[in-house]
Amino acid sequence: MNRLIVFDDFVFVDVTDIAKSLWGKEDLYVVDVDRQTEHLIESNYQLTNWLHSGTLRVCIEGGHLPTPSIDWWNNSEKIAHKGYIYVKTKDIIK
Fold this sequence. Notes:
The protein is an alpha+beta fold. The chain contains four helices and seven strands. It has helices at about 20, 45-55, 70-75, 90; strands at about 5, 10-15, 30, 35-40, 55-65, 80, 85. The protein has a five-stranded antiparallel beta sheet. The chain starts with a strand and ends with a helix. About 10% of the residues are buried.
């Protein structure tokens, strides 16, 4: 089972198997992967119901994915060789 769920560059971490131990320590969300929706679990009763239903995943927030920057491509020295374009590593990692 994939433990990371990504919706629109936001990551949720599946904690269904340890959700009861995280209750009260982390905000827990029930996530529907097919519909790409999430709902905050506000009570222990809701948590118990979602865990017993077994149809959706219980998750915590992982955060936003970093937006890739393409400035390194525009500012790097490129070398063309046999139909491929190479970029020096020193230009990528700055």
